[in-house]
UniProtKB/TrEMBL annotation:
Pfam family, one: AP_endonuc_2
Keywords associated with the record: Isomerase
Protein name: Xylose isomerase
Gene3D superfamilies, per the entry: Divalent-metal-dependent TIM barrel enzymes
């Protein structure tokens, strides 16, 4: 009875305080953010490739521009996956500034859907060090590519065979990742993987709870035929991939089924994302040439507005 009286007293005061607009008496009754905001390192790839920005400084620069969570790209510390002193320095810088290290995007480590068993297993082995690095850094996910040496075509048999091979490589990598507790996700990243239905089915066929997706709003350009883009509707593709998503990447351009690119409808897309019960990080992956940070801040502000309205 006492607890109930205290509860009613507290909620009564809180309600009155909120009605009077007194934030100091809100008693924590604040609306939870529907999603979080992070920054993908690829957004500033030109600055990194040109040595205007060092990888070790990326997280601190993100915070200076109002973003407290980062998504790494392995290309910018390619030879450091097993350099413990370097990884410790990454940890120290982020921990000192309260920055969350979300995931590592891994490229250039072989095709997880290679036709050759030997090549497929070599790719799996090449990726393992990044899983260990992700664990050390406190990341929850490693993003890989769903590529095969079966070239993209409109032949359903090719799509089926490529999916089978990628599923096998992902399953093997997930088995290694399991004791580390790291998610292994494929991003729609061109070719077969930019077909939302194909990628969702490939992940289901991988048949492992750690296998998932990283839907990228803008990466639904599949390929080209006689110079004309072949694409997949971004809104439908994200909707198909969200049930297995461990993150999302935001690009401000989207595609339709007719090969047309257009501006992202932020509210429409975020409603799709949230409809699947997702409340994780939305990773900004965009930086306009010569105004990278300015364009990043512009998108961050749009997302912050949506955080308040959704």
């Amino acid at each position: 009875m006492t607890n109930r009286r205290n509860f009613l007293k507290t909620t009564g005061l809180a309600t009155a305080a909120l009605g009077l607009g007194l934030p100091q008496f809100s008693f924590g009754l604040t609306k939870a953010e529907p999603f979080k905001i992070s920054l993908a390192e690829w957004s500033v790839n030109r600055l990194l490739f040109s040595k205007q920005l060092d990888h070790l400084d990326f997280a601190l620069e993100a915070k200076k521009h109002g973003i407290n969570a980062v998504e790494y790209v392995n290309q910018f510390f390619m030879d450091k996956a097993q350099d413990m002193a370097y990884l410790k320095e990454m940890n120290t810088r982020c921990q000192n500034e309260g920055i969350t290290q979300v995931l590592i995007m891994v490229d250039r480590e072989g095709m997880l859907g290679a036709r050759s068993d030997e090549d497929r297993m070599k790719a799996v082995e090449n990726h393992k060090k990044w899983i260990e690095a992700a664990k050390f850094l406190g990341c929850h996910t490693v993003r890989v590519n769903g590529y095969s040496d079966i070239a993209w075509s409109q032949n359903p048999a090719d799509a089926t065979e490529a999916s089978k091979l990628v599923s096998d490589g992902i399953h093997k990598l997930c088995e290694f990742a399991e004791p580390h507790g790291i998610r292994i996700v494929i991003e729609n990243h061109g070719g077969f993987s930019s077909n939302g239905k194909w990628l969702a089915e490939t992940i289901r066929n991988a048949n492992h709870p750690l296998a998932g997706t990283l839907p990228d709003f803008g990466n639904f350009r599949i390929g080209a035929i006689e110079g004309k883009p072949v694409s997949y509707d971004s809104y439908r593709g994200v909707d198909e991939l969200m049930p297995q998503a461990a993150g999302v990447s935001l690009k401000p351009k989207v595609w339709d089924d007719a090969g047309n690119e257009s501006d992202l409808d932020y509210e429409r897309m975020m409603k799709i994302v949230l409809s699947h019960g997702y409340h994780g990080h939305v990773g900004i992956e965009h930086g306009e040439r010569n105004r990278e940070w300015e364009s990043i801040v512009e998108i961050r502000q749009i997302l912050e507005s949506l955080q308040k309205s959704m």
